[in-house]
Amino acid sequence: MKIIITGAYAIGTHLARLLSRNQEEITIIDDDQERLDRIGADYDLLTLCGSASSVRTLREAGTENADLFIAVSPDENANINSCILAHALHARKTVAKVNDAEYVEDDVRQFYKDLGVDQLIYPEILAAKEIINGLKMSWVRQRWDVHGGALVMLAIKLRDNCQILNQPLKDLCGPDDPYHVVAIKRHQETIIPGGNDELRCLDLVYFMTMKQYIPYIRQITGKESYTDVHNVMFMGGGMTAVRTLQSLPEYMNAKIIEINPDRCEELNELIEDKTLVIEGDARDTNLLEDEGIKNTQAFVALTGNAETNILACLTAKRLGVRKTVADVENLDYASMAEELDIGTIINKKAIAASRIYQLMLDADVLNVTFLMSANADVAEFVAKDDSKVIKLPVKDLRLPQDVTIGGLVRNDKGMLVNGNTQIEAGDHVVVFCHGVNMKALEKYFNSPRKIEKIGRELLSRLSL
């Protein structure tokens, strides 16, 4: 697949890292040669110095043969303009990063799609959704819903009060049990478990279940003592915090601590009166105690500095807060934050990359999420008529190693999957992949006719 990325900034660099591991043909365009030199030295890709709004530059990059054109510079107008030009040059799919929620409204999104921008990505609003999902369930590190919650994936950190530790999974997750363990993160290792694997204290475990069994999962993992979140304290008043506060459930009360006095005035205009804006430094223990940290169930650190966010979350935990969320944009600090048991880690680059990664796939994929803690992907595929996946029971499909099917949704009803399950056309199938190019799974879910069509399109492009 030929992919062109414009903007060698944070998201563009992260995308290049993710996509280069899949051995795609990648060209990255930027008008700063120093940025290109840094990224070109680290990853296997081509670089081109020039303006992404220049037709000459786009042609030089081979945009007419691009399967995916991704514009992720800080300038949303330049991103949209370059996508429109790329569409006119016959790029197959285009995606632009934007910085304003207006662009993701349905009518505006359709307007730009008609102009040639297939997908608009607003990282801040995607991150806000992740944060709110985490706050709704204080005992869960990450939640991912499939088909409106018919299936639910829960990432849970196990402690010594967990009831299912040190027992083979084959004794815990039988065909009639209401959950499956689809992955385990243990220290720096991600495990796709078999029947003989066991869960250990401090494992981060990914459970697949149905919504009605969430209370049961909470019980067996020893999380019933976690109180629901009613009071939330935010540190940092950037746009991610604003979008989160604007979507916060009615039953949650929020305070936001911002160190910049001018930004405090802006926040008072941007957010509702029920949110108290406090000028100060949330790393100050005395300030946190004065503002009621003892009566706070969740602390969310969203400054632009990963170290500051991590330290603030550690301080909040020391003061008794059980649910902490940290924005860690520097991926070098992500594993450190995980080892320090920070809690939920938010990374806008990874969230945006998951949405863009979905556009790479020719199979019918409704949702893709990159699980940063596990360095893995989870996706919702739709099984097509006459596809390979519907012809044999799951145990006979010969799926790649480190791939597991966690469950499926049939006629809006969630079901867990075992070796004898027979997938049917139209099923929404949840696939968990670690260290595997997800494009390798397309042949299982596409019909032979679509695979032949893709092949013909590739041959046509090569002949040009």
TrEMBL record:
The keyword S-adenosyl-L-methionine does not apply. Residues 141-223, 366-447 form the RCK C-terminal domain. It comes from the Bacteria. GO terms for cellular component: plasma membrane. Keywords: Ion transport, NAD, Potassium, Potassium transport, Transport. InterPro entries: K_uptake_TrkA, NAD(P)-bd_dom_sf, RCK_C, RCK_C_sf, RCK_N, Trk_Ktr_HKT_K-transport. Residues 1-121, 223-346 form the RCK N-terminal domain. The keyword Signal does not apply. GO terms for molecular function: potassium ion transmembrane transporter activity. PANTHER family: POTASSIUM CHANNEL PROTEIN 2-RELATED-RELATED (PTHR43833), TRK SYSTEM POTASSIUM UPTAKE PROTEIN TRKA (PTHR43833:SF5). This is Trk system potassium uptake protein TrkA. It comes from Hallella multisaccharivorax DSM 17128.
